[in-house]
From TrEMBL:
<dbReference type="InterPro" id="IPR020904">
    <property type="entry name" value="Sc_DH/Rdtase_CS"/>
</dbReference>
<dbReference type="Pfam" id="PF13561">
    <property type="entry name" value="adh_short_C2"/>
</dbReference>
<protein>
    <submittedName>
        <fullName>Uncharacterized protein</fullName>
    </submittedName>
</protein>
<dbReference type="InterPro" id="IPR002347">
    <property type="entry name" value="SDR_fam"/>
</dbReference>
<keyword id="KW-0560">Oxidoreductase</keyword>
<dbReference type="InterPro" id="IPR036291">
    <property type="entry name" value="NAD(P)-bd_dom_sf"/>
</dbReference>
<dbReference type="GO" id="GO:0016614">
    <property type="term" value="F:oxidoreductase activity, acting on CH-OH group of donors"/>
</dbReference>
<comment type="similarity">
    <text>Belongs to the short-chain dehydrogenases/reductases (SDR) family.</text>
</comment>
Length: 283
């Protein structure tokens, strides 16, 4: 099942994983243990990169998945195939999550298909490198905030009536929120907003038994950076500045999203996990 929802934004991002060499490693690294048995998860940006790895791991742990994506239909179809190969159900929903109405439709279609929502993973994002703050156009600034943080408000607002006690929300922030990024002024600013949103929403919903946490990845090999999300100079040395001296793989990040979504993290809310190659960020 594929639905097209919202006004799709055409540009080079996020890029096709099918075209990327070497291919990112999305495959789960261990057998499932039914940590998410019969749960339903909405995952934005699930067609590739971290989102695909999270979808694959959630499916291995027993969840059905709403695969939300922007443009890359072939990548989304492959994520759907991966989920189904784990014995779970998936729907693909083509949507611009920066549009409130699109988020409402994503939730409606997920409820129609599965009848429940247990987990919301706000993973979709975009970034545009700029050498100088004066290079950032008003359109780019608005678009980056719309995609990266407005979308989280819209998706949670749409899903909130369907989230019961025990539900989990997991947001994707970034190491750039903590250490900054001279080329990603608008992007890193949205990630700061996401961290504040996570901490504040966790307090807002904790009385309802709904946990809200976040993951702050470091440099991860996904289509986002080589498709225009990083300068060529930065891309040539991508991940080398981390203590581990390399970029991470999506399947090295997905377990953090699993932990925060499942019962193992029942005493955690308002927290951020940091799969970033050893960077100490004190946050």
């Amino acid at each position: 099942m594929t639905e097209t929802i919202g006004m799709i934004h055409e540009d080079a991002l996020p890029g096709n994983e099918a075209d990327l060499e070497p291919k990112p490693a999305w495959q789960p690294r261990y057998r499932g243990a039914d940590k998410l048995k019969d749960k339903v998860a909405i995952i934005t940006g699930a067609d590739s990169g971290i989102g695909r790895a999270v979808a694959a791991l959630y499916a291995r742990e027993g969840a059905d998945i709403a695969v939300v994506y922007l443009l890359e239909e072939a990548d989304a179809a492959e994520t759907k195939r991966i989920v189904e190969a784990e014995g779970r159900q998936a729907i693909t929903l083509k949507a611009d999550v920066g549009d409130r109405h699109a988020c409402n439709r994503v939730v409606a279609e997920t409820m129609k298909a599965f009848g429940r929502i247990d987990i919301v993973v706000n993973n979709a994002g975009e970034q545009h490198p700029d050498q100088d703050i004066t290079d950032i156009t008003e359109q780019q600034l608005q678009r980056t905030f719309q995609t990266n943080i407005f979308s989280m408000f819209f998706m949670v607002q749409a899903a909130r009536p369907h989230l019961k006690k025990g539900a989990a929300i997991v947001n994707c922030t970034s190491v750039t929120m903590y250490k900054g990024s001279k080329e990603l002024l608008d992007y890193s600013s949205t990630k700061g907003a996401i961290t504040a949103f996570t901490r504040s929403l966790s307090q807002n919903l904790i009385g309802e038994g709904i946990r809200v946490n976040a993951v702050a990845p470091g440099p991860i090999w996904t289509p986002l950076n080589p498709s225009g999300g990083a300068s060529q100079e930065k891309l040539a040395h991508f991940g080398e500045s981390t203590p581990m001296g390399r970029p991470g793989q999506p399947n090295e990040v997905a377990p953090a999203f699993l932990f925060l979504a499942c019962g193992d993290a029942s005493y955690m809310s308002g927290q951020v996990l940091h799969p970033n190659g050893g960077v100490i960020v004190n946050g």
